[in-house]
Structures are given as structure tokens and as C-alpha cells.
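Lecture 7 notes: from sequence to structure.

We start with a single chain of 191 residues. Read the sequence below before looking at the structure.
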Amino acid sequence: MEPKTYIQMKTKNDVINDIIVENDYKSYLEIGYQNGAGFNEIKAEIKYSVDPNGKADFKGTSDDFFNQLPKTKKYHIILIDGLHHADQVRRDIINASKFLYKSGAIILHDVNPNSKETQTVPCQTGIWEGDAWRAFVGFRKAYPDVKTNCLLDDHGVGIIYPNGVKFNGEFEDMDMSYEDFAKDKEVLLGV
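Now the structure, written as C-alpha cells:
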């Protein structure tokens, strides 16, 4: 009898910590702190959190946070896991690019929804990824020369490496049905 092989699923925090170690990143910004459980697992020397609720360092929306941030402030890695609406995720990507070191990375959570129901906006289920996938897919279409990657585990972890590019212009959220997305998601997400 052959032994069973178990593949360990990576969480967004595993991915973030791997990127921090591989790139010797020091500073981390988390948009969407919630209760702080994930934030506490991140192994960066400097950490800062944003959320309108709970015990985040900045209690407010990500838009409010970025609007008050000094233009000289920079982070090595920024997690976008706040409001899971494509239009907000798009704004967060644009804003994050302005406060990221050239060698930094933007991480998006929930870009691989489990079902049509869990991606419906507004939230109608207990588990909710929202339509963050629309912003990530739309970003990849608008910026094909920017390095991106995606891991399908843990509801989908999208990674953007802007390499100093500031996304000042708007980009469109991908306008397609969930069914069409699900048929071709590995290509659309860049897996």
C-alpha cells in the first residue's frame, strides 16, 4: 500500500511571510485588519494596520488612510483585504502603488471565489470573497507588462510587483459573468 501524500495549502499569511523573507522586506501595511489574527502572524519588523472597525492602528477607511499619508511614506509589502468590492480594490491598488518601495509587492486576497454566491455583492453568505477578482483580472488586462502571480489557495492570493510603476490612471474592473470567469480563471488570474 502506498503512503498518502498530503499537500499543505498555503494561506495568504504563508505567502506574505515567504515574500518578506525572500526579499528581506522590513515594512508591512495591512488593509482589512478585522480582529488582528492574521496581522499577528506576519513576520515584518514594522507593521501597520487599517480598518474602520476593531483595534487597527488607523481606524477608518483605506481611502481616508491613503489621503492622510505623507507622500514620502513607503512600505515593502501591502495587503489589500478590506472591502471586497471591485471598485474599492481597484482604488486600493492605485493608492498602494504610490506608497510602495520600488522593489515592493501588493498582495490581494479573495481573488478566487468559491462560488457565484460567495462573490455576489453585497454579501449574501457566511463566507464572502466579494468580487475582488474583477479588479485583479481588470488590472492584469490593463497592465500586461507588470509582473503578477496568483495562488488559488486560501480563496486566491494575487500578487502584483509594480517595480516602481505608479498606477495613476483608472483601469476597468473586468466585466464578465462569474461563469465565464470560472471557466478560464487560471489564465485570467495568471496561475
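The CA atoms of residues 116 and 165 lie 33 Å apart. Keep this in mind for problem set 3.
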